[in-house]
Amino acid sequence: xxxxxxxxxxxxxxxxxxxxxxxxxxxxxxxxxxxxxxxxxxxxxxxxxxxxxxxxxxxxxxxxxxxxxxxxxxxxxxxxxxxxxxxxxxxxxxxxxxxxxxxxxxxxxxxxxxxxxxxxxxxxxxxxxxxxxxxxxxxxxxxxxxxxxxxxxxxxxxxxxxxxxxxxx
Length: 169
Description:
Elements: H1 2-10, H2 14-28, H3 49-58, H4 77-85, H5 91-104, H6 106-116, H7 126-133, H8 142-152
């Protein structure tokens, strides 16, 4: 995708990247997301049996209503998972939108991290995260979840099955 290439080219310097993202936001705004994500899985969606087992065994989530979907574990797994809900968007498009959201609202996300105590889960600044996720196959974090939630205008719930029984998250 051309926009992701522009982001990568500018990612050597965060201030240049922020300026680039302001310009790219105007382009992305011409292509809004679908109003609603898919609510039901297609028959071709493969269930991640191990993840489903963990959800069933270690959470209070009703397994008849929620399914763990198998996605490509190629380092882009969060974007791949979200693209299951928005099949018209690629992982790269979601990455571009996320980077633009984080860059253009850096102060908001830094404040969010401080106010919600998210630094207990993720101690990266917006700047560090954006520069890292400008590249494919880089792990994402709570900031990415927050930005994707804003982009989609839907809440995203991160579930950590209590398999260790002493995990505060």
